[in-house]
Amino acid sequence: MTLFNKEGLLIWKFIIIIAALVFIWLFLTMTFLPMIRKQHRKHSIRLHSEVPSLENLTINHTQRIAIALDFSLNDEKLIAHAINQGHQDATYILLHIVESVSAKFLGEESDDDETRKDKQRLENFAEQLHALGYKVETHIGYRNRNREIVRIVNQAEAEMLVMGAHRHSGLKDYLFGETIEAVRHELKIPVLIVNV
Questions:
Q1: Fewest Cβ atoms closer than 10 Å to its Cβ: which of 53, 106, 125, 163?
Q2: Residue 8's pLDDT band (boundaries 50, 70, 90)?
Q3: CB count in 10 Å sphere of residue 183
């Protein structure tokens, strides 16, 4: 008399059925997945069209460049890259998002020490660039970093955004890389990402 003909033993019957289904699924996956992937690779190769002729390689000179600053030692590098893109003709939009606790809750109404210092730092950068002959605007954002960068860039009608990418690995890369990815997907303008 087999196991399935006996009464009771429901748990063992259930385990055997699940094991058989898993075995069948593994067998089918190992058999057919390589063939599907091979076919997909062939299809993706065929998707590429003929090499187009390069006829229109001119783009308008960038007039308004936003720079997302975090007030670290890397800000100078970001500003230098931005200036290299627009030179003396462009207007540079310096922006920073205040991330203090009161700024997250009160937004523009916050007047804590960090907000005041951040505004002062932004003005200090602007004064230095003005002294060098550059046109500069400053913008402070509050609460959500990603949304505020996008809002300021759109509101200021920037034609390019320069952001710094901190070369972290593992979890830090996931956490700090989120801002760049979220902002990049929301904007329709070029985003220059500078490894700092």
A1: 53
A2: low
A3: 21
- Give yes or no for a contact between 97 and 145, defined as CB atoms under 8 angstroms apart: yes
The pLDDT tens digits of the residues spanning 40-64 come to 666 555 556 677 788 888 888 899 9
What is the helix (H) or strand (E) element at residue 92, kind and residue range?
strand 91-98
CA 50 to CA 54: how far, in whole Å? 12
Most confident among 36-40, 86-90, 135-139, 177-181 (mean pLDDT): 135-139
Cβ-based neighbours of 86, under 8 Å, separated by 6 or more: 61, 62, 63, 65, 92, 160
Contacts of 96 (CB under 8 A, 6+ apart): 68, 69, 70, 71, 118, 121, 122, 139, 140, 141
Phi, psi angle pair for 95, to nearest 5°: -135, 150
User: pTM higher than 0.90, yes or no?
Assistant: no
Helix (H, G, I), strand (E, B) or coil at 12: helix
